[in-house]
Every structure is written in C-alpha cells, then in structure tokens.
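Problem: given the chain below (375 residues), write out its structure.
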Amino acid sequence: MTAVDLVAHVAAFARALRERGVRASLSDEADAVGALTLSDVSDRDEVRLALKVALKIRRRDVETFEALFASLWGSEDPAEGARRRASADERRLHVKNFGGLPGAVMETVERHAHEGGADTPGYSPEAMLRKKPFEECTERDLAEMQRLLARMALALATRKSRRLVPTRGRGRIDPRRSLRRAIATDGEILRLARRTRAIEQPRLVVLCDTSGSMDRHVRFLLTFLLSLKKAARRTELFAFNTSLVRLTPWVSPAKIAATLDRVAAGVPGWSGGTQIGSCLETFVDRYLDEMVGPSSVVIIVSDGLDRGDPAPLAGAMRAIHSRARKVVWLNPLLGDPRYEPTARGMAAALPYVDVFAPAHNLESLEKLVPRLSAA
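Solution.
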C-alpha cells in the first residue's frame, strides 16, 4: 500500500465513523496515518489496534468502530499481502519518506487532500480551507474559519512553559521543598512537595494595518487577533493606517462578527492610505512604556508598503525592539514566493524584527502560534 493509498484509506474510514456519530478529528486522522506507518499493515489486528488508539475511540463507540473496521478495512489478496510484509528496514524507510514526524504526516495528509479534490473523503474541506489564500475567501469561509482560529488561539493560551511552579496535584517531586517541610515534623516527610510546568501567559501587543493595500486580508487577520484576545486576555490590540487607534476597549471577543463590523465602521481611514512610521511613533510615545516590557511579544501585521520617510519607522522599531521580548512582523505578501521585502518601509523595519513570517492563510497563522510563546 502506497503512502497515498494509506492516507486515502484512513480518510475514508474516519469519514465513515463521523457519519455514524463517532468523533474523529483531522488531527486524529494524522495520528492514525503516523501510527500505521509504524505498524505491520499486513496484520489486521495490529492495524485495528493502531487505529483504535490513534483515533481515540471511546468505549461507547467501540461497537461502531469494530463493525466499520470489519466492513471497510477488508481482507487483501495474497500478492498485496506479500508486498506489505516488508522487512523492518523497509518499514523504517517508509516512515522516513513520511518525515517520521506528526507534522510531516499532516503535510502528507493535507497535500493528498488538496490534490484529491472534492472526492477525497474525510478532511478535504478543512485542509483546503487552511491553505486557501485570504484574498480568495468569502464571508462563508470566514464563518468556518472562526472555529479553527479559536482552536489556534486556545493552543497559544494554554501552552505550557519550561518554568516549574509548585502544585498540589500531580507533578515532579521537589526534593528541596519536601525536605524543608520535613523540618517542621522532626525530619519526617509526611507529604512530598511537587512541581509542574506553568501555563504560559503570553503578553501580546498587536498592531494591525487596516489601509487599502491590506483590505483583502484584514478582516480574516482581525478575526485571528480577536480570537487571540479571547484566549490570551493579556492582549492589547491596535489598528493603524494614517492614524493609530487602540481597539482593546471596543473588543467583545464573544461576539467576533459584531466586533469586526464595529471596528470597520469606527476606525478612521479604514481601507485608505497608510503612514506606518508615523503610527508606530505614536505608539512609542503614548503606549510603549506602559504596555511593552521584557515579557511582551509585539506583533505588527502589515504589508510594509509605506512610501513616507523610512527614518521614523526605523526609529520606532528600534525603540520597540529595545523593550520587547520579541518583535514579530506578519506580512501577507510573504506568502508569495516571488515577494522580496525591498519596499523602503519594510527594509527599514527588518533589522528590528525577530520573526518575519507570512500571514496569507490559516496554515501560516497556525505555524506562527508556537513561535509566539517560544523564548
């Protein structure tokens, strides 16, 4: 069975499960493909157990799973069985071709979904939506995206840091605290002290370009930013074009669609010109000391198309970079492989940017999330 056959088979099986009310997500499908690349697929029992674990089949769904497996994961002809009985080395090579990692398996799944068109079962709509450029998206796409964007934001807000903090529940044993406690009980350790990884609480300051050149992207990007605000509450939002507007007081993360309409109607100069340098100077003068510190990540969302004097932009970026833990610049144009950041504004900003990343579709934003919380 080729890699593409394996992906298609898992997709068809997961789709059949969903049609019968069994939960099986895109992530579960990718896990299932990864599990099967490490299994002897000529052994139906091994395949069945791998799928059962990877798809996280609940007890109440076991009967449905077993029935579908028996009907859809049918027996094979002897020639195919012989081909599948590869040696361990060959199976390892197969895993290597997949990349050997869940992310690589996911890319294989998505690529097959993209190439397979509408007939590819299981996950094609979601995979296609994740890769669809924002300028090609519709209002209906935006509604579908909100669920995925909320999931990305939640992953950021609940990401565990490397820092360990005391806990009353499960965690690593803390010998020092355990011994200190024992002093009060004449050296007898009555209860072990434990530590666990703290939940990262990101402090984000986001400035989003709402000028005319960003018009095709800004509604989708603001949906992502509002989802971030909902999940990571220590987030400040600003819009800028020819002036800077603090959006945080306007934001109602629970009502993202209404907030988008209110912002579009209330921000002066929406879809007009842009003066990036002047707006960032305003941010530095009014808000930098209050909002940006060693734990802050500053995110600037803009195509960098500023025809004004680049000196104010460079000066503002220098000031921001000197205070922030990290400066991230998201540029929708970076999704085009032909793009080069040669515009004067973008070139002036880049020396003070730690992460320069595309923001042209859901997939690019999803790749960004772990980089926002990394030290």
